[in-house]
Amino acid sequence: MSAASLQDARVRLAGRLVLDQVSLCLEPGELVALLGPNGSGKSTTIKAALGLLPLEAGEARLGDVPLRALGPRERGRRASYLPQTRRAVWSIEARDLVALGRFAYGSAPYERLSPADRAAVDEALERCDAADLARRGVDTLSGGEQARVHLARALAAGAPALLADEPAAALDPRHQYEAMALLRAEADSGRGVLVALHDLHAARRWADRVVVLDAGRIAAQGAPGEALDAGVLAQVFGVREGEGGFVPD
């Protein structure tokens, strides 16, 4: 049984077709990198898979259940989401923001959480190198510190599927590495992890499989070494591999 899937998904926004006939299946225990140039449909794919955007055609499932049959709490038990744009609407402590990851289990401010929920929050903060930020107001944190706290929120959910949109954005090199290592560990523990990335090197290093989008359609998919061949690099990304890395083709 897959952790999450899309079948022949089509999404139209403001009258424009932005996703067309996209099918993908996220299996437990794998990390899939969703790649593509700006505007190719990566964020749209993740949102469609979570029911955050309506499908004009096709179907989204979490586990073996159609998304339309699941209420908000059941969706929260099956999938966690790290959006590309992360902002806290209220000035709350970081640990209370992470506690929102336990929404599906009856989330409350940290002080009123059950012992099990509190342990999940504490562990997620520790794993994201954010334990020392727990009592800080989110609005006092730097962009990178906020990114680590939001990643902790997604991890605290403990859902079978984790969908993350640019999880390393705003992070310094050390924390970029640690964020990807955490997501790799989540996949190795049995969760299905779908990660939208721009970093092709990171995709090759961490992903079991890549899905390449171009203009809202799947251009290639498979093992990183196969899907990111010279033709795809040139046609989709406009780059080639040079001596110092990827360079304009």
What is the strand and helix layout of this fold?
Blueprint: E1 4-13, E2 16-26, E3 31-35, H1 42-50, E4 57-62, E5 65-66, H2 72-78, E6 79-82, H3 94-99, H4 115-127, H5 143-156, E7 161-165, H6 173-188, E8 192-196, H7 200-206, E9 209-214, E10 217-222, H8 224-227, H9 230-237, E11 239-242, E12 245-248
Parallel strand pairs: 3-8, 3-9, 6-7, 7-8
Antiparallel strand pairs: 1-2, 1-4, 4-5, 9-10, 11-12
Please provide a brief summary of the model.
InterPro entries: AAA+_ATPase, ABC_transporter-like_ATP-bd, P-loop_NTPase. By secondary structure, this protein is an alpha/beta fold.
Description:
It is a single chain. With 249 residues, this protein is α/β, with parallel strands linked by helices. It folds into two domains: 1-63 and 160-248, 3-Layer(aba) Sandwich (Rossmann fold), CATH 3.40.50; 86-159. It contains nine helices and twelve strands. It has a six-stranded mixed β-sheet with strand order 6-7-8-3-9-10, with helices on both faces. The longest helix has 16 residues, at 173-188. The mean pLDDT is 95. GO terms for molecular function: ATP binding; ATP hydrolysis activity. Residues 4-240 form the ABC transporter domain. It comes from Marinicauda algicola. Keywords: ATP-binding, Nucleotide-binding, Translocase, Transport.
